[in-house]
Amino acid sequence: MSAPTPGRGPSGGWWRARLTSREGQTTTGRTLRFDVPGWPGHRPGQHLDVRLTADDGYQAVRSYSLAAPAAGETVELGVQTAPDGEVSPYLNEILPLGAEVEVKGPLGGWFVWTPEDRGPLLLVAGGCGVVPLMAMLRARRAAGATGDPCALLCSVRAPDELWYAKELADPTGTEDVRLLYTRQAPPGGDRPAHRLAPDDLEGLPASPETRCYVCGPTGFVEHATALLQSRGHPPGSIRTERFG
Question: Start and end of every FAD-binding FR-type domain (predicted)?
Answer without folding.
Answer: 12-113
